[in-house]
Design goal:
Elements lengths: L9 H4 L8 H8 L3 H18 L3 E5 L4 H6 L14 E6 L4 H10 L7 E7 L4 E6 L8 E5 L6 E2 L2
Length: about 150
Amino acid sequence: MQGFSKYFTFEELTHTNHKSLQQENRAKAMQFINAGKRLSKLLGSIREAYGSPITISSGYRCPSVNTAVGSKARSSAHLRFEAGDCIPVGKDLKQFFHWLNANQDQFPDLRKAIIEYHKGIVHIEVKMSANEPQTFYATHDNDSFEVVA
């Protein structure tokens, strides 16, 4: 599909391991396609600058998939195609997160990054307007979040 980066396709960003929900997830993602393209381009620019592959464990989630994966967040950015959960391939998660924080000025479309130690991912959100601030957080349980400076 046009408008997505070469590294993060529509198919990859809408994939779910809940096979019975795959078709619904991709169909509902279409209403947020512009956000998905922005997310894909942001993730692609991060991957290019980082110089190493990044796997997406979760991108867009329709409400059914969001419930199936056990998310408690009713306003999750995943529901609007504005978030991707990333895992650096063959690299240390904490090092990737700190690199991203140190290089955040290179990514003006980055809204939020959260290192979720308990899940082994870095949750990345794309800005949908230029005036949104950049924030970095760390969590060990998704109940309490610590701001990372």
